[in-house]
Automatic annotation (TrEMBL):
GO terms for molecular function: electron-transferring-flavoprotein dehydrogenase activity; flavin adenine dinucleotide binding. SUPFAM superfamilies: FAD/NAD(P)-binding domain. Pfam families: Pyr_redox_2. Transmembrane segments: none annotated. GO terms for cellular component: cytoplasm. The keyword Flavoprotein applies. Signal peptide: none annotated. Residues 5-311 form the FAD/NAD(P)-binding domain. Belongs to the FAD-dependent oxidoreductase family. This is FAD/NAD(P)-binding domain-containing protein. InterPro entries: FAD/NAD-bd_sf (IPR036188), FAD/NAD-binding_dom (IPR023753). It comes from Massarina eburnea CBS 473.64. Keywords: FAD, Flavoprotein, Oxidoreductase.
Length: 423
Protein backbone atom coordinates (compact mmCIF):
# COMPACT_ATOMS: atom_id res chain seq x y z
CA UNK A 1 0.00 0.00 0.00
CA UNK A 2 1.23 3.48 -0.88
CA UNK A 3 0.57 6.30 1.57
CA UNK A 4 0.96 9.78 0.10
CA UNK A 5 1.90 13.15 1.50
CA UNK A 6 0.14 15.30 -1.08
CA UNK A 7 1.43 18.81 -1.79
CA UNK A 8 -0.85 21.16 -3.73
CA UNK A 9 1.25 23.89 -5.35
CA UNK A 10 4.73 23.97 -6.84
CA UNK A 11 5.93 27.45 -6.06
CA UNK A 12 8.23 28.48 -3.19
CA UNK A 13 6.21 27.00 -0.32
CA UNK A 14 5.17 23.80 -2.09
CA UNK A 15 8.66 22.97 -3.34
CA UNK A 16 10.16 23.66 0.10
CA UNK A 17 7.53 21.49 1.82
CA UNK A 18 8.15 18.62 -0.61
CA UNK A 19 11.92 18.74 -0.10
CA UNK A 20 11.50 18.89 3.68
CA UNK A 21 9.14 15.91 3.63
CA UNK A 22 11.48 13.83 1.47
CA UNK A 23 14.63 14.71 3.39
CA UNK A 24 13.32 14.68 6.97
CA UNK A 25 9.76 13.37 7.30
CA UNK A 26 9.65 10.14 5.31
CA UNK A 27 12.96 8.78 6.69
CA UNK A 28 11.68 9.13 10.27
CA UNK A 29 8.30 7.49 9.84
CA UNK A 30 7.88 4.08 11.52
CA UNK A 31 8.33 1.13 9.21
CA UNK A 32 5.11 -0.71 8.58
CA UNK A 33 5.05 -3.97 6.68
CA UNK A 34 3.38 -3.63 3.30
CA UNK A 35 3.31 0.18 3.44
CA UNK A 36 5.48 2.61 1.50
CA UNK A 37 5.43 6.41 1.62
CA UNK A 38 5.50 8.89 -1.22
CA UNK A 39 5.41 12.65 -1.75
CA UNK A 40 3.19 13.75 -4.64
CA UNK A 41 3.08 17.32 -5.93
CA UNK A 42 0.29 18.82 -8.04
CA UNK A 43 1.01 22.03 -9.96
CA UNK A 44 -0.42 23.61 -13.13
CA UNK A 45 3.06 24.12 -14.64
CA UNK A 46 6.10 21.88 -14.96
CA UNK A 47 8.27 24.84 -14.00
CA UNK A 48 8.73 27.07 -10.99
CA UNK A 49 8.24 30.69 -12.06
CA UNK A 50 10.63 33.02 -10.21
CA UNK A 51 7.86 35.54 -9.62
CA UNK A 52 10.11 37.76 -7.50
CA UNK A 53 11.67 38.95 -10.78
CA UNK A 54 8.36 39.70 -12.48
CA UNK A 55 8.71 43.52 -12.47
CA UNK A 56 11.95 43.30 -14.44
CA UNK A 57 10.93 40.34 -16.56
CA UNK A 58 7.97 42.19 -18.06
CA UNK A 59 10.15 44.99 -19.48
CA UNK A 60 13.15 43.19 -20.97
CA UNK A 61 14.21 39.69 -21.96
CA UNK A 62 17.76 40.99 -22.08
CA UNK A 63 17.71 42.16 -18.46
CA UNK A 64 15.83 39.09 -17.24
CA UNK A 65 16.07 36.15 -19.68
CA UNK A 66 13.76 33.16 -19.44
CA UNK A 67 16.66 30.99 -18.25
CA UNK A 68 16.57 32.94 -14.98
CA UNK A 69 12.78 32.90 -14.66
CA UNK A 70 11.75 29.28 -15.13
CA UNK A 71 13.13 26.20 -13.35
CA UNK A 72 11.93 22.65 -14.15
CA UNK A 73 10.44 21.06 -11.03
CA UNK A 74 10.92 17.33 -11.57
CA UNK A 75 14.73 17.37 -12.07
CA UNK A 76 15.09 19.10 -8.70
CA UNK A 77 13.73 15.92 -7.06
CA UNK A 78 15.87 13.43 -8.99
CA UNK A 79 17.53 12.38 -5.73
CA UNK A 80 14.18 10.96 -4.57
CA UNK A 81 12.75 9.73 -7.86
CA UNK A 82 11.40 6.53 -6.30
CA UNK A 83 9.58 8.50 -3.60
CA UNK A 84 8.44 11.58 -5.53
CA UNK A 85 5.63 11.92 -8.07
CA UNK A 86 4.79 15.06 -10.04
CA UNK A 87 1.34 15.64 -11.51
CA UNK A 88 0.85 18.56 -13.88
CA UNK A 89 -2.67 19.69 -13.14
CA UNK A 90 -4.99 21.73 -10.98
CA UNK A 91 -6.84 20.69 -7.82
CA UNK A 92 -10.59 21.08 -8.25
CA UNK A 93 -12.03 19.57 -5.04
CA UNK A 94 -10.93 18.21 -1.67
CA UNK A 95 -12.84 15.39 0.03
CA UNK A 96 -11.56 15.60 3.59
CA UNK A 97 -13.76 12.73 4.80
CA UNK A 98 -12.48 10.40 2.10
CA UNK A 99 -8.98 11.94 2.17
CA UNK A 100 -8.79 12.45 -1.59
CA UNK A 101 -8.19 15.40 -3.90
CA UNK A 102 -9.75 15.67 -7.35
CA UNK A 103 -7.33 16.95 -9.98
CA UNK A 104 -7.75 17.97 -13.60
CA UNK A 105 -4.51 17.22 -15.37
CA UNK A 106 -2.98 19.33 -18.13
CA UNK A 107 -4.24 16.78 -20.66
CA UNK A 108 -7.82 17.13 -19.38
CA UNK A 109 -7.91 13.85 -17.45
CA UNK A 110 -9.77 13.73 -14.13
CA UNK A 111 -7.82 12.05 -11.33
CA UNK A 112 -8.56 11.32 -7.69
CA UNK A 113 -5.43 11.29 -5.53
CA UNK A 114 -5.64 9.79 -2.01
CA UNK A 115 -3.54 11.24 0.79
CA UNK A 116 -2.53 10.46 4.34
CA UNK A 117 -1.47 14.08 4.86
CA UNK A 118 -2.37 17.12 2.76
CA UNK A 119 -0.27 20.29 2.44
CA UNK A 120 -2.04 23.18 0.73
CA UNK A 121 0.50 25.56 -0.77
CA UNK A 122 -1.47 26.96 -3.69
CA UNK A 123 -0.36 30.54 -3.07
CA UNK A 124 -1.90 33.60 -4.67
CA UNK A 125 -2.69 35.05 -8.09
CA UNK A 126 -2.10 38.65 -9.14
CA UNK A 127 -4.86 40.60 -10.93
CA UNK A 128 -2.48 41.24 -13.82
CA UNK A 129 -1.48 38.06 -15.68
CA UNK A 130 2.04 39.47 -16.05
CA UNK A 131 3.08 38.49 -12.53
CA UNK A 132 1.54 35.01 -12.18
CA UNK A 133 2.10 31.73 -13.97
CA UNK A 134 -1.40 30.28 -14.18
CA UNK A 135 -0.72 27.57 -16.78
CA UNK A 136 2.66 26.94 -18.38
CA UNK A 137 5.92 28.63 -19.26
CA UNK A 138 5.10 29.11 -22.95
CA UNK A 139 1.92 31.05 -22.18
CA UNK A 140 3.68 33.50 -19.88
CA UNK A 141 6.59 33.96 -22.28
CA UNK A 142 4.10 34.81 -25.02
CA UNK A 143 2.48 37.42 -22.79
CA UNK A 144 5.85 38.98 -22.07
CA UNK A 145 6.69 39.15 -25.74
CA UNK A 146 3.40 40.89 -26.57
CA UNK A 147 3.71 43.29 -23.64
CA UNK A 148 7.28 44.28 -24.46
CA UNK A 149 6.26 45.02 -28.04
CA UNK A 150 3.56 47.38 -26.78
CA UNK A 151 5.87 48.90 -24.19
CA UNK A 152 8.41 49.91 -26.81
CA UNK A 153 5.86 52.17 -28.50
CA UNK A 154 4.08 53.57 -25.45
CA UNK A 155 4.04 57.17 -24.24
CA UNK A 156 1.82 56.73 -21.16
CA UNK A 157 1.56 54.08 -18.45
CA UNK A 158 -0.66 53.94 -15.36
CA UNK A 159 0.06 51.43 -12.59
CA UNK A 160 -2.59 50.77 -9.96
CA UNK A 161 -1.28 49.71 -6.56
CA UNK A 162 1.77 50.88 -4.62
CA UNK A 163 2.89 47.78 -2.81
CA UNK A 164 6.30 46.30 -3.69
CA UNK A 165 5.18 44.90 -7.06
CA UNK A 166 3.63 48.20 -8.13
CA UNK A 167 6.61 50.28 -6.99
CA UNK A 168 9.17 47.91 -8.52
CA UNK A 169 7.23 47.79 -11.78
CA UNK A 170 6.98 51.58 -11.89
CA UNK A 171 10.73 51.83 -11.42
CA UNK A 172 11.59 49.26 -14.08
CA UNK A 173 9.22 50.70 -16.69
CA UNK A 174 10.19 54.30 -15.96
CA UNK A 175 13.89 53.55 -16.34
CA UNK A 176 13.30 51.49 -19.47
CA UNK A 177 11.32 54.29 -21.16
CA UNK A 178 12.86 57.44 -19.67
CA UNK A 179 16.41 56.37 -18.87
CA UNK A 180 18.40 56.51 -15.65
CA UNK A 181 18.09 59.57 -13.40
CA UNK A 182 20.24 62.61 -14.06
CA UNK A 183 22.85 64.24 -11.83
CA UNK A 184 21.94 63.89 -8.13
CA UNK A 185 18.76 62.09 -9.07
CA UNK A 186 17.25 64.94 -11.09
CA UNK A 187 14.19 64.24 -13.22
CA UNK A 188 14.60 63.36 -16.91
CA UNK A 189 14.73 66.51 -19.05
CA UNK A 190 12.89 64.96 -21.97
CA UNK A 191 10.97 61.90 -20.71
CA UNK A 192 9.64 59.62 -23.43
CA UNK A 193 6.64 58.51 -21.40
CA UNK A 194 4.34 59.73 -18.67
CA UNK A 195 4.29 57.16 -15.88
CA UNK A 196 1.74 57.41 -13.07
CA UNK A 197 1.62 55.21 -9.98
CA UNK A 198 -1.75 55.27 -8.16
CA UNK A 199 -1.53 54.64 -4.40
CA UNK A 200 -4.70 53.96 -2.40
CA UNK A 201 -3.11 54.97 0.91
CA UNK A 202 -1.24 58.00 2.23
CA UNK A 203 2.07 56.26 1.55
CA UNK A 204 3.56 53.53 -0.61
CA UNK A 205 4.98 50.22 0.64
CA UNK A 206 2.68 49.63 3.65
CA UNK A 207 5.16 47.50 5.63
CA UNK A 208 7.85 50.21 5.57
CA UNK A 209 7.98 53.46 7.51
CA UNK A 210 6.86 56.72 5.90
CA UNK A 211 10.37 58.14 5.53
CA UNK A 212 11.37 55.11 3.41
CA UNK A 213 8.23 55.52 1.33
CA UNK A 214 9.18 59.16 0.72
CA UNK A 215 12.64 58.05 -0.40
CA UNK A 216 11.00 55.64 -2.83
CA UNK A 217 8.90 58.48 -4.23
CA UNK A 218 12.03 60.59 -4.70
CA UNK A 219 13.72 57.78 -6.63
CA UNK A 220 10.65 57.27 -8.81
CA UNK A 221 10.46 60.99 -9.50
CA UNK A 222 14.04 60.87 -10.75
CA UNK A 223 12.88 58.32 -13.32
CA UNK A 224 9.97 60.44 -14.49
CA UNK A 225 7.23 58.69 -12.49
CA UNK A 226 4.50 60.62 -10.65
CA UNK A 227 2.79 59.16 -7.56
CA UNK A 228 -0.87 59.93 -6.78
CA UNK A 229 -1.83 59.26 -3.12
CA UNK A 230 -5.09 58.50 -1.28
CA UNK A 231 -6.69 57.43 -4.54
CA UNK A 232 -7.99 54.13 -5.86
CA UNK A 233 -8.46 52.87 -9.39
CA UNK A 234 -12.20 52.41 -9.82
CA UNK A 235 -12.14 50.96 -13.33
CA UNK A 236 -9.99 50.62 -16.41
CA UNK A 237 -11.72 50.28 -19.76
CA UNK A 238 -10.36 49.86 -23.26
CA UNK A 239 -13.31 50.14 -25.67
CA UNK A 240 -11.44 49.36 -28.89
CA UNK A 241 -8.27 47.62 -30.02
CA UNK A 242 -5.45 50.12 -30.37
CA UNK A 243 -7.18 52.83 -28.35
CA UNK A 244 -6.07 54.21 -25.02
CA UNK A 245 -7.32 52.78 -21.74
CA UNK A 246 -9.49 55.07 -19.63
CA UNK A 247 -8.45 54.69 -15.99
CA UNK A 248 -11.17 56.05 -13.69
CA UNK A 249 -9.92 57.18 -10.27
CA UNK A 250 -11.80 57.51 -6.99
CA UNK A 251 -11.02 61.26 -6.89
CA UNK A 252 -13.13 61.77 -10.02
CA UNK A 253 -10.22 62.05 -12.46
CA UNK A 254 -9.81 59.92 -15.56
CA UNK A 255 -6.32 59.12 -16.83
CA UNK A 256 -5.74 57.98 -20.39
CA UNK A 257 -2.96 55.48 -20.85
CA UNK A 258 -1.48 53.36 -23.60
CA UNK A 259 -0.92 50.70 -20.94
CA UNK A 260 -2.64 50.07 -17.60
CA UNK A 261 -1.13 47.56 -15.15
CA UNK A 262 -3.16 46.31 -12.20
CA UNK A 263 -0.81 45.69 -9.27
CA UNK A 264 -3.47 46.03 -6.56
CA UNK A 265 -2.53 43.15 -4.33
CA UNK A 266 -3.11 39.41 -4.73
CA UNK A 267 -5.97 36.89 -4.66
CA UNK A 268 -5.60 33.53 -2.83
CA UNK A 269 -5.84 30.40 -4.98
CA UNK A 270 -8.46 28.80 -2.77
CA UNK A 271 -11.56 28.64 -4.97
CA UNK A 272 -11.51 24.82 -5.00
CA UNK A 273 -11.85 24.58 -1.21
CA UNK A 274 -15.03 24.52 0.93
CA UNK A 275 -16.10 28.03 1.93
CA UNK A 276 -16.11 27.11 5.60
CA UNK A 277 -12.34 26.57 5.40
CA UNK A 278 -11.77 30.19 4.36
CA UNK A 279 -11.72 33.50 6.21
CA UNK A 280 -13.25 36.76 4.98
CA UNK A 281 -10.19 37.37 2.76
CA UNK A 282 -10.65 33.91 1.18
CA UNK A 283 -7.46 32.70 2.80
CA UNK A 284 -7.34 29.31 4.49
CA UNK A 285 -8.23 29.50 8.17
CA UNK A 286 -5.58 27.71 10.16
CA UNK A 287 -4.26 27.46 13.67
CA UNK A 288 -1.77 30.36 13.63
CA UNK A 289 0.70 28.43 15.77
CA UNK A 290 0.58 24.88 14.37
CA UNK A 291 -0.54 25.73 10.78
CA UNK A 292 -3.07 22.91 10.85
CA UNK A 293 -6.37 23.57 9.10
CA UNK A 294 -8.33 22.40 12.12
CA UNK A 295 -11.74 23.07 10.56
CA UNK A 296 -10.91 20.70 7.68
CA UNK A 297 -10.15 17.52 9.60
CA UNK A 298 -7.15 15.35 10.33
CA UNK A 299 -3.69 15.98 8.87
CA UNK A 300 -4.42 18.98 6.64
CA UNK A 301 -1.99 21.91 6.76
CA UNK A 302 -1.34 25.17 4.94
CA UNK A 303 1.97 26.89 4.15
CA UNK A 304 2.66 30.02 2.15
CA UNK A 305 0.59 32.99 1.07
CA UNK A 306 -2.74 31.12 0.86
CA UNK A 307 -2.80 30.78 4.66
CA UNK A 308 -4.47 33.13 7.13
CA UNK A 309 -1.43 33.06 9.42
CA UNK A 310 0.96 35.07 7.24
CA UNK A 311 1.40 38.57 5.85
CA UNK A 312 3.17 36.90 2.94
CA UNK A 313 6.62 36.72 1.45
CA UNK A 314 9.40 34.19 0.92
CA UNK A 315 11.22 35.07 4.14
CA UNK A 316 8.13 34.33 6.20
CA UNK A 317 7.72 31.02 4.40
CA UNK A 318 11.18 29.98 5.59
CA UNK A 319 9.95 30.35 9.18
CA UNK A 320 6.71 28.46 8.55
CA UNK A 321 7.94 25.38 6.67
CA UNK A 322 9.87 23.78 9.57
CA UNK A 323 6.88 24.30 11.88
CA UNK A 324 4.31 22.74 9.58
CA UNK A 325 6.58 19.87 8.60
CA UNK A 326 7.53 19.06 12.21
CA UNK A 327 3.84 18.88 13.12
CA UNK A 328 3.10 16.73 10.08
CA UNK A 329 5.81 14.29 11.16
CA UNK A 330 4.46 14.23 14.71
CA UNK A 331 0.91 13.62 13.52
CA UNK A 332 1.90 10.91 11.06
CA UNK A 333 3.95 9.00 13.62
CA UNK A 334 0.98 9.10 15.98
CA UNK A 335 -1.36 7.99 13.18
CA UNK A 336 0.87 5.08 12.17
CA UNK A 337 1.48 3.93 15.75
CA UNK A 338 -2.09 4.51 16.90
CA UNK A 339 -0.79 6.68 19.71
CA UNK A 340 -1.35 10.19 20.98
CA UNK A 341 0.58 12.96 19.13
CA UNK A 342 3.63 14.51 20.72
CA UNK A 343 4.01 18.21 21.52
CA UNK A 344 3.42 20.75 18.78
CA UNK A 345 5.99 23.02 17.25
CA UNK A 346 4.77 26.63 17.15
CA UNK A 347 5.09 29.29 14.48
CA UNK A 348 5.84 32.86 15.52
CA UNK A 349 5.39 35.59 12.94
CA UNK A 350 8.34 37.89 12.36
CA UNK A 351 6.62 41.28 12.26
CA UNK A 352 9.76 43.38 12.16
CA UNK A 353 9.98 45.99 9.42
CA UNK A 354 11.39 43.91 6.61
CA UNK A 355 11.02 44.52 2.89
CA UNK A 356 13.46 45.21 0.06
CA UNK A 357 12.28 47.12 -2.99
CA UNK A 358 14.52 47.86 -6.00
CA UNK A 359 13.64 50.99 -8.00
CA UNK A 360 15.25 50.66 -11.39
CA UNK A 361 18.42 48.71 -12.02
CA UNK A 362 20.76 50.52 -9.64
CA UNK A 363 18.82 51.91 -6.65
CA UNK A 364 16.13 51.00 -4.16
CA UNK A 365 14.77 51.27 -0.62
CA UNK A 366 14.20 48.83 2.18
CA UNK A 367 14.61 47.61 5.72
CA UNK A 368 15.81 44.35 7.20
CA UNK A 369 15.26 43.20 10.77
CA UNK A 370 13.70 46.55 11.65
CA UNK A 371 16.62 48.61 10.35
CA UNK A 372 16.65 50.75 7.23
CA UNK A 373 19.31 49.69 4.73
CA UNK A 374 21.06 51.89 2.14
CA UNK A 375 20.22 51.92 -1.54
CA UNK A 376 23.49 50.19 -2.48
CA UNK A 377 22.65 47.27 -0.19
CA UNK A 378 19.18 46.99 -1.73
CA UNK A 379 20.86 46.69 -5.11
CA UNK A 380 23.33 44.10 -3.83
CA UNK A 381 20.67 41.92 -2.22
CA UNK A 382 17.83 42.16 -4.72
CA UNK A 383 18.14 44.90 -7.33
CA UNK A 384 21.09 43.34 -9.17
CA UNK A 385 19.15 40.29 -10.40
CA UNK A 386 16.05 39.98 -8.17
CA UNK A 387 17.78 37.36 -6.04
CA UNK A 388 18.09 34.82 -8.86
CA UNK A 389 21.77 34.18 -8.21
CA UNK A 390 21.38 34.11 -4.44
CA UNK A 391 18.31 31.94 -3.99
CA UNK A 392 16.97 30.29 -7.12
CA UNK A 393 19.02 27.09 -7.20
CA UNK A 394 18.99 26.72 -3.43
CA UNK A 395 15.22 27.08 -3.49
CA UNK A 396 14.81 24.52 -6.25
CA UNK A 397 17.15 21.91 -4.78
CA UNK A 398 15.98 22.29 -1.21
CA UNK A 399 19.38 23.42 0.05
CA UNK A 400 17.73 25.79 2.51
CA UNK A 401 16.36 22.74 4.31
CA UNK A 402 19.25 20.35 3.78
CA UNK A 403 19.32 19.90 7.55
CA UNK A 404 16.31 19.50 9.77
CA UNK A 405 15.93 22.62 11.86
CA UNK A 406 16.08 21.92 15.58
CA UNK A 407 13.56 23.07 18.13
CA UNK A 408 12.77 22.61 21.79
CA UNK A 409 9.23 21.78 22.85
CA UNK A 410 8.00 24.49 25.22
CA UNK A 411 6.15 21.96 27.26
CA UNK A 412 4.74 18.50 26.87
CA UNK A 413 1.05 19.13 26.36
CA UNK A 414 -1.61 17.20 28.19
CA UNK A 415 -3.15 14.57 25.98
CA UNK A 416 -6.90 14.47 25.82
CA UNK A 417 -9.61 13.65 23.37
CA UNK A 418 -8.72 16.74 21.28
CA UNK A 419 -5.17 15.50 20.92
CA UNK A 420 -6.24 11.99 20.00
CA UNK A 421 -8.54 13.35 17.28
CA UNK A 422 -5.48 14.52 15.33
CA UNK A 423 -4.41 10.94 14.76
Amino acid sequence: MMETILVLGGSFAGISAAHYALKHTLPQLPKKEGTAYNVTMVNPSKDLFWRIAGPRAIVSKKLMPSSKLFYPIEPAFAYAKDKFTFVQGTATHVDAAGQTVSVQTASGEQKSIPYVALIIATGVTTPSPLFTQTTDRASLEAQYGAFQKRLGATTSVVIGGAGPVGVETAGEISEMLNGKPGFLGSEPKSPKAKITLVCAEKKMLPILRESISKQAEKLLKGLGCTVVYNTKVVSATNPAEGSKTAVQLSNGETLEADIYIDATGVRPNTGFLPKEWLDNRKRIQCNPKTLRVDVAGARIYVVGDAGSYTRGGVMDMYDAIPVAMTNIKTDLIAHINGAAPGPDRHYTANLKEQQICPIGTSKGVGAFGGNQIPSLMVWGIKGRDYMVGMLAQGQMNGDKFAKETKWKPQAVQAVGQAGLSRG
